[in-house]
Amino acid sequence: MPTPSVLVFDVNETLVDIESLAPIFGEKFGDERVLREWFSQLVMYSMTVTLAGNYVDFSTLAQGVLRMIGDIYDVAITDADLRRLKTALLTMPAYPDAADGLATLRDNGFRLVTLTNSPPNPNGPTALQNSGLGDFFELQLSVDARRAFKPAPAVYRYVCETLGVAPADCMMVAAHVWDTLGAQHVGYSSALITRPGNPPLPVDGLPQPTLVVSDLRELAERLVGG
């Protein structure tokens, strides 16, 4: 495997832990597992609005999907609930392995950037900055700049255009196969981080991740050691 020079990190569930949102769903729905239903619907509808040629930012869509899930379960979602979700999305904690892995990668010469579905926060720090990981990255890029959600090819090409690099120079690091597939389609290599609930997709005929690792410490070991 050629060693990439640029590592492009997804943020939500790759670097920061969305399980921190679970209490919101436990309190509203009586079952913290509804978090996963909400997140799956959020990802599905982000892709849907892109394919349909529409766009609203991820935070707005997240709140709308919460209202939709409320309607499914006949649970009233208030404006206060929406504000709480918006704040929680900006204050998710980093995974324990993230800082160590990022430090090793940075110190060994890799260029580190992020590419997230989440929009920039014009009124304060981003979720990445609030997690304490922001200083590891050369740039924090958002799909909002292209008004299309991952895995649209345009957003991965946007990273290359911004950095002045070729897709072959880049490795997408993500906890979601839909993200690694999108990046590989435009010529990136990829590393799948198998966070809980995010295994590989073993389907013949689909590109498999270049690397499959359990966390960022293992990713650093594989790339630095390799």
UniProtKB/TrEMBL annotation:
Report the source organism: Mycobacterium terramassiliense
Q: What is this protein called?
A: Phosphoglycolate phosphatase, HAD superfamily
- GO terms for MF: hydrolase activity, acting on acid halide bonds, in C-halide compounds
Give any Pfam family that matches: Hydrolase
Alphabetic keyword roster? Hydrolase
Q: Does the keyword rRNA processing apply?
A: no
Question: Which NCBIfam families is this protein grouped with?
Answer: HAD-SF-IA-v2 (TIGR01493), HAD_type_II (TIGR01428)
Top-level taxon of origin: Bacteria
Q: In which family does this protein belong, per the annotation?
A: Belongs to the HAD-like hydrolase superfamily. S-2-haloalkanoic acid dehalogenase family.
